[in-house]
Design brief:
With about 70 residues, this protein is mainly α. The chain has one domain. The protein is built from four helices and two strands; from the N terminus they run βαβααα.
Length: about 70
């Protein structure tokens, strides 16, 4: 498969997908990291965005949810 376009940043949470994207040279960021970066730049309110994310099919363990809420 030939890739003709370059991505500036690929948003992906799936572990296998991230691994393959990195092999192909794509810069990858996870959803939570993107939310944290946006919040640190005061583009979003982390807890609001994170709360909305948790109403979707996005999965995080309860332990990870607690860690993120303490960190942000």
């Amino acid at each position: 498969m030939e890739l003709e376009e370059t991505a500036y940043l690929l948003l992906m949470d799936d572990k296998a997908g991230r691994r393959e994207a990195k092999k192909l040279g794509f810069p990858v960021i996870r959803t939570i990291a993107l939310l944290e970066k946006a919040a640190s730049r005061e583009l979003i309110h982390f807890e609001d965005a994170f709360g909305r994310l948790l109403t979707t099919s996005f999965y995080l363990s309860q332990a990870d949810i607690l860690k993120l809420r303490k960190r942000n």
